[in-house]
Every structure is written in C-alpha cells, then in structure tokens.
Specification:
Elements: E1 3-5, H1 11-22, E2 28-30, E3 43-44, E4 46-48, H2 53-67, H3 70-76, E5 78-81, E6 85-89, E7 94-98, E8 103-105, E9 112-114, E10 117-122, E11 129-131, E12 134-138, E13 141-145, E14 152-156, E15 160-163, E16 166-169, E17 171-180, H4 185-203, H5 208-225
Antiparallel strand pairs: 1-14, 2-4, 3-7, 4-6, 5-17, 6-17, 7-15, 8-9, 10-14, 10-17, 11-16, 12-13, 12-15
The structure holds nickel (II) ion.
The site of nickel (II) ion (NI) has 3 residues, from loops.
C-alpha cells in the first residue's frame, strides 16, 4: 500500500525544522555512511548524523506527531518506529534503485528493527526544487511522489524505489522505517481498508450489532496475524 498522510507536521513545525536543519553545519555528512552494499554505489546525498542533538530533537518532534495521527496508526499499525533521519539532495544528487535493508540496528540500543513500512516526510515544498521525485515500483508500475512540506508517504519496505536527480534547488526530507504489528503488506492493507470502513459506519450510526461484529472481526484478525 502506498498512502499519503497529509499534514503530519504543521506549517510552524516544518518552518522550525527547516530553520534548525539550515543551521546544522557539520552535522550534515555524506549519506553513504548508512547505505549497505546495494545502496552505497548508487547513493549521492547528504544526511544529518544519527545521534546528533538535532537529529534526536527533530526526530522526537516527528515521533510525537505520529503518535497523535490516527491515519498513520491505522495504516502502519506500528510496533516500533526507527528514530527519524534527515537528508538533503542538492543539485546533481540522487539515490538510484534499491530496496531498503530488511533489518536495522537502532543506534546505541542494540535493538534490531525489521523494516516493514518505509516513510518519507517531505520538508521542502515542491516548488523549491526540480526533479527529486520519490519513484516507487510495484506490480502496477512506477508511482511518483513529490508531496507538500509536512506531508508523508508510507510504502512497503519491500518495494524497489529511487529518488530522481535534483536538477534545481534542494530537497530536504525526513525518512525512517516502521516495524509493523503486521509484517505482510497485503494483510496490513486489508486491515486498513476494514478499519476505514468501520470508521465510516461508526460516523453514520449504522446498525450497531453489525458494527460490533465487524469490529470484533478486525481485532481477531489483528490478533491472528499480529507479531
Ligand atoms: Ni530507500
């Protein structure tokens, strides 16, 4: 499932994050430090060093916003969220085709996180740069995303994806991964569709017994499939 989650951050939060990142100085490092064997040869960008004070501060801001976002919770069914990272693609920078590594060690914790869902939270407005689209391939073809600042795309970590070269300006974003309670994307998608339908029925005050039964099915599927 590819899904846009609008307005994860408010305009003021985006402005604050951008201001902090603009003055991050030597916390910006070569993005290849976190790329694996597959990613490193095709990756050309800048990243904020993990565990730097700015990464931790802005990461916490994003995590707090996600905890209050019902659409994110319904779609991703998060078990654990990787501390958000930050990148910048300046003119000529890109990230070629790759699949994100399946397991990531959360820095300084020894905790291993299985990447089920990948997230990109856009921090630049689309008119600030040309190119820089996030391109995701699935069985239906290639999907292109270039969202408003503050909006976030979530997509299965199993997908082949890339960031097109930036040809004007700079593209700044946060990116991270989620270990979901539901490992399989098709099962997670079905639960999201079911939850969305139940929410619609709840808001229309439809038959209460039927809604109770459907809600029971939702939770029992979550229990059956959940990690
Ligand atoms: Ni990636």
């Amino acid at each position: 499932m590819l899904l846009t989650i609008p307005k994860v951050l408010t305009t003021d939060q985006v402005r604050y994050a951008r201001e902090r990142l603009h003055h991050a100085g030597d916390a910006w490092i070569d993005g290849r430090v976190t790329a694996g064997h597959q990613g490193a040869p095709v990756k050309r960008n800048l990243q904020i060093a993990e565990n730097s004070a700015i990464a931790l501060e802005l990461g916490d801001l994003i995590l707090a916003a996600l905890e209050r976002n019902p659409l994110f919770i319904s779609a991703a069914l998060p078990n654990q969220v990787y501390p958000p990272m930050f990148n910048c693609y300046e003119e000529g920078m890109y990230f070629g085709n790759h699949v994100d590594g399946a397991i990531r060690l959360i820095p300084g914790t020894g905790v291993k996180l299985r990447t089920d869902v990948s997230a990109t939270l856009f921090l630049s407005e689309p008119d600030e740069y040309d190119g820089g689209e996030l391109l995701i391939e699935d069985t239906y073809g290639v999907h292109s995303a270039k969202l408003a600042a503050g909006d976030m795309l979530v997509y299965p970590s199993t997908s082949l994806h890339r960031v097109a070269p930036v040809i004007r300006g700079a593209r700044i974003a946060s990116f991270f991964w989620i270990q979901s309670l539901i490992r399989d994307d098709s099962q997670r998608s079905m639960l999201f569709d079911m939850d969305t339908a139940i929410q619609r029925l709840n808001s229309s005050q439809a038959d209460e017994i039927a809604r109770t039964n459907l809600t029971g099915c939702y939770h029992n599927l979550l229990r059956m499939w959940g990690a």
